[in-house]
From TrEMBL:
Record family assignment: Belongs to the class I-like SAM-binding methyltransferase superfamily. TPMT family.
Residues holding S-adenosyl-L-methionine: 10, 45, 66, 127
PANTHER family: THIOPURINE S-METHYLTRANSFERASE
Keyword S-adenosyl-L-methionine attached: yes
Protein name: Thiopurine S-methyltransferase
Keyword Cytoplasm: yes
GO molecular-function term, one example from the UniProt record: thiopurine S-methyltransferase activity
HAMAP family with a match to the protein in the record: Thiopur_methtran
UniProt entry keywords in alphabetical sequence: Cytoplasm, Methyltransferase, S-adenosyl-L-methionine, Transferase
Natural source organism: Shewanella hanedai (Alteromonas hanedai)
Enzyme class: transferase
Lineage of source species: Bacteria, Pseudomonadati, Pseudomonadota, Gammaproteobacteria, Alteromonadales
Length: 223
């Protein structure tokens, strides 16, 4: 989606994607990556997710990227984290850098971010980031993510799939076939789970979407 879409969602507080608890699939599957606590974790399109706090509590330094300044400010204030802000002129554009003790959030377009801002990242966590892009922009995001994380880095990816014609995204439907066909070039892809989640999602039930699955993948950046 275009940045203006997301800015208007944050301005109107239409943030149904935001969860008030740590994502249960993160709790269940993060240990599959077998990371040491000192591994730095990149969280693309992070919103103000509490998953950042969970990862930081495990000992990871967390580096997020989020378009909306309101989202970033809410993340720090709602979690009572003192922060400082500075601006970064990355080669591909301007970002604001919000720094707290174990969390850094680059506020701006992920396409402005470079590996200079993420020099020590060893892992990544994508929940509601890949599925936030319409299909026409999805591959560009995958290519950007692949550029930002180093070879051998490990990631957890959480996707949704449903018949796209039944509902207008976001979230957009991302099938297992799409993941395998388009992400295999950059990542070893392992499906860890795929569950029927229709009854947990009233928006989909109300729109009479016939089925909805949520999948969790372990990814490893190829050389
Ligand atoms: C569906 S939300 C998911 C947020 C978060 N991952 C979560 O689980 O709550 C997608 C987020 O991506 C942000 N976003 C959209 N386009 C972006 C871009 N080009 N660069 C950085 N962030 C972006 C939006 O502002 C929004 O907060």
């Amino acid at each position: 989606m275009e940045p203006s879409f997301w800015h208007s969602k944050w301005d109107a507080k239409q943030i149904g994607f935001h969860q008030h608890e740590v994502n249960p699939l993160l709790l269940k599957y993060w240990s599959n990556l077998n990371l040491s606590p000192d591994s730095e974790v990149f969280v693309p399109l992070c919103g103000k997710t509490l998953d950042i706090c969970y990862l930081a509590e495990l000992g990871h330094k967390v580096l997020g990227c989020e378009l909306s300044q309101a989202a970033v400010e809410q993340f720090f204030t709602e979690n009572s984290l003192a922060y400082s802000m500075s601006s970064v002129t990355a080669s591909a554009g301007k970002l604001n850098q919000f720094d707290a003790e174990q969390v850094v959030i680059y506020q701006g377009d992920i396409f402005a971010l470079t590996t200079n801002e993420l020099p020590d990242v060893k892992a990544f966590y994508d929940r509601a980031a890949l599925i936030a892009w319409p299909e026409s922009m999805r591959l560009a995001y995958v290519e950007k993510l692949a550029k930002l994380v180093p070879p051998e880095s490990l990631g957890l990816l959480i996707t949704l799939d449903y018949p796209q014609e039944a509902l207008k995204g976001p979230p957009f439907a991302v099938s297992n076939d799409w993941v395998v066909a388009n992400m295999n070039e950059f990542f070893d892809v392992e499906l860890l789970s795929c569950e029927d989640v229709l009854s947990d999602n009233p928006r989909f039930v109300n729109k009479e979407v016939p089925w909805l699955t949520e999948s969790v993948y372990k990814l490893k950046r190829k050389h």
